[in-house]
Amino acid sequence: MKEERIAIQVDDLTVAYNYKPVLWDIDLKxxxxxxxxxxxxxxxxxxxxxxxxxxxxxxxxxxVQVFGKPYHKQRKLVAYVPQKxxxxxxxxxxxxxxxxxxxYGTLGWxxxxxxxxxxxxxEALEKVDMLSFKDRQISxxxxxQQQRVFLARALVQNASIYIMDEPFQGVxxxxxxxxxxxxxxxxxxxxxxxxxxxxxxTVPEYFDWVTFLNVEKIATGPIKDIFNDDNLTKTYGINYxxxxx
Length: 245
Known about the structure:
Blueprint lengths: L5 E12 L2 E12 L3 E5 L6 H8 L7 E6 L2 E2 H4 L3 E4 L13 H6 L3 H4 L7 H13 L15 H13 L5 E5 L7 H16 L3 E5 L6 H4 L2 E6 L1 E7 H4 L2 H8 L9
Parallel strand pairs: 3-8, 3-9, 6-7, 7-8
Antiparallel strand pairs: 1-2, 1-4, 4-5, 9-10
Helix pairs in contact: 5-6
């Protein structure tokens, strides 16, 4: 029997802003090859958790390992799609240039993208159905189109782990289904996906693993085992029942 590899391990993680804990003593093991949703109410620390995994936010205690090593040693194995609202969409750049930014991690900042990188960027844009918009200014794209371009930027990195902060926020139904299908293809290829998600009704449909979070970790594991009314109630603080599609 093949031994389960842990893609991301979080131990005793605590993060505080102005001395107020926003994450408290989090222990988490994310197996390789799962597609995991992080769910919880507003202010639960969902975005903070993934930023701590990515070394964007510094914890006051605890540590994070990626495939058994600190994140800074495994940076090239991880691709990140930030929350849409955190991006300056007025920055004057085209869709193809945004995707090419995803190649900088392997090229370094001095070497410029060549034919190989441009070919990979065009293929990534085609995969997200945005090839015909490659020369369009990012500010001129719709919210859903912008999100597809940022997904293409992550795809071009050919990472082992994809971490995404609410990738379905503000996109239309067609774009959401398209993104979900791409994520499922990545999982089929053995990639690990960690996604902050807010629509509880779609969790069992989109994901196979879930972490319930509300400052503390409430529960984590396969959907079939822990996505239930009891954990929903513990996480959201009310008698919660979700109508599963």
